Amino acid sequence: MHMTCLPVGLRRPMGLIIFCLVWNVSAAQQPLEPTPETALGPEYSSDAQATTRLWAPGDPGQRLHLRGRVLASTGQPIAGAQVQVWQADGAGAYHDDRYRATFPSGEDGGFRLTTALPGQYWGAKHIHVVVMHPDYAPLPTRILFKGDPYLDEAVHGDLAVSLEEVHMEGSPVLLGGVELVMRPLNGN
Ligand SMILES: [Fe+2]
């Protein structure tokens, strides 16, 4: 858990240490709203490549580095969740054998995906996701993007991530982060 601990109003080191401990414990136990579910959609297929790199040089559109984290609604990270993604390529076309990936979340629930910002296809730009873990309800959802003129903020604003454009090795790259929050099967 990455936490920023600000020594606001605290002058003594011991006070700062206690403040940090309380801050981290309370933040770790904070319940989270499960990520809203959406339909799998007609482009779903169980076929997916075991990879975290869908982008290939020469592909259309913009390269996107997505950092993600799979969390329980209790706030705890979920290691070993299976994440499957499928999306249109940067030109807005779905393929049977490309831009479909599956990978596990890491020990801290984290994952990284290098892909393309999906092109326009049937409404707002989106990446389909389904997250599976034996102890949690399956989570089919979508990642959408803030600033997309086709995004309906009132309906799907919670699913939209902010993108930042940076330059890496002379090329423009989009960076974004997403949290996927699963509901435990025991109802907690
Ligand atoms: Fe789609």
Strand content: 35-45%
* Poorly predicted runs of 5 or more residues: 1-26
Structural class: mainly beta
Shape: globular
Indicate the CATH topology of the largest domain: Protocatechuate 3,4-Dioxygenase, subunit A
Mean pLDDT: 87
Q: How many beta-strand segments?
A: 10
Widest sheet: strand ordering: 1-4-3-6-7-8
Q: Which percent range fits the helix content?
A: 10-25%
Count helical runs.
Answer: 2
Bound molecules: fe (ii) ion
- In CATH terms, the superfamily of the largest domain is Aromatic compound dioxygenase
Describe it.
The protein is mostly beta strands and 188 residues long. It folds into 2 domains: 1-30; 31-182, Aromatic compound dioxygenase (Protocatechuate 3,4-Dioxygenase, subunit A). The protein is 11% helix and 36% strand. The protein is built from 2 helices and 10 strands. The protein has helices at 13-28, 153-156, and strands spanning 49-50, 63-72, 82-87, 100-104, 110-116, 127-133, 136-145, 160-161, 163-168, 171-182. The strands form 2 sheets. A 6-stranded mixed sheet has the order 1-4-3-6-7-8, with no helix packed on it. It has a 4-stranded mixed sheet with strand order 5-2-10-9, with no helix packed on it. Strand 6 and strand 7 form a beta hairpin. It is globular. Residues 1-26 have low confidence and may be disordered. The structure holds fe (ii) ion (FE2). Fe (ii) ion (FE2) binds at residues 41, 43, 126, 128. Residues 41, 43, 126, 128 line the site of fe (ii) ion.
